[in-house]
Write a structure and sequence with these properties.
225 residues, mainly alpha, 45% helix, globular
C-alpha cells in the first residue's frame, strides 16, 4: 500500500491547490481507465505518472485505507478502518438472516465512510436474493460527513457494477449527518462502524438539537439508539 499512498502524495504535490482529495479522484480515474471504463477526467501526464501504481489489479481495495491514512484530524473525527473480517461477521449476523430468494431489502450505513459495508452487502444481496448486482447495489444506502469518502464509496460500487446509473449512486450515497436522517426514512438493516470518540475530545457533542443528547456525548453511542 505504501507505493499507492506515496503516489497520491506526489500527485497532490503536483496538483498544488487540489491536494489529496483531487489526487484520490484522479486515482479513481486511473483505476477505471486501466479496466477500460470511464469514471472521470484523468490528470495531467505528470499526475498520471505519479499514480501509475493505481492501475495495477486490485489497487481499488486500498482506496479506503489510503484515504484514511492521509486524513487530517482523523482521530478527532473518529475515523478508523473497519477490518474485512469484522464487516463479514456483522453482515452475517444482521443482513444474511433477512435474505431469501426474491426478497428485496434496503440497507443503510449511517456512517459509511468509503463503503466498507456497502459493497459486501450488495454482493450478499445479489448472491442470496438472486438479482443482478446492479439491482443489489441500488438497495444499499450510505451517509457520511466526509465528501471524499462518499465519492470513493460511490466509485467502488460503480466499479463493481458499471451499469448502475450515476444518478442512483448520487441519490443513495450522500454527504450529511447520519443522525439527522428524515424521521420517515425506512430501512430493513442498519449496519456500520460509527465514529468512535472519547468523551473528552473536542469532537464529542457540546450542543445538539437531537432529543436526549447532552454535553460530552460520544457520538458513536447515538448510532445505537
Amino acid at each position: 500500500m505504501r507505493e499507492l499512498r506515496d503516489g497520491v502524495v506526489e500527485a497532490a504535490r503536483v496538483l498544488g491547490g487540489g491536494g489529496v482529495p483531487a489526487a484520490l479522484g484522479f486515482a479513481c480515474a486511473e483505476i477505471a481507465d486501466a479496466r477500460g471504463v470511464l469514471w472521470g477526467q484523468r490528470g495531467s501526464e505528470e499526475v498520471c505518472d505519479a499514480l501509475a501504481a493505481w492501475r495495477e489489479p486490485g489497487a481499488e481495495q486500498h482506496l479506503g485505507a489510503v484515504h484514511e491514512s492521509l486524513m487530517t484530524g482523523r482521530k478527532e473525527a473518529g475515523a478508523f478502518y473497519t477490518p474485512a473480517f469484522l464487516v463479514e461477521q456483522l453482515l452475517e449476523e444482521t443482513l444474511v438472516p433477512l435474505l431469501s430468494p426474491g426478497q428485496r431489502v434496503r440497507v443503510l450505513d449511517p456512517a459509511c465512510g468509503t463503503g466498507a459495508f456497502l459493497l459486501p452487502a450488495a454482493r450478499r444481496i445479489a448472491q442470496t436474493v438472486g438479482v443482478p448486482l446492479a439491482d443489489a447495489i441500488a438497495c444499499v444506502h450510505g451517509v457520511d460527513l466526509d465528501p471524499v469518502a462518499v465519492e470513493i464509496a460511490r466509485f467502488l460500487l460503480w466499479l463493481e457494477g458499471p451499469s448502475v446509473p450515476r444518478t442512483v449512486l448520487d441519490a443513495n450515497l450522500v454527504v450529511g449527518d447520519g443522525l439527522a436522517l428524515a424521521p420517515d426514512a425506512s430501512y430493513d438493516v442498519v449496519v456500520g462502524n460509527p465514529p468512535v470518540l472519547n468523551q473528552l475530545r473536542t469532537a464529542t457533542v457540546r450542543e445538539s438539537s437531537v432529543e436526549g443528547v447532552g454535553p460530552y456525548t460520544d457520538t458513536s453511542a447515538l448510532f445505537l439508539l
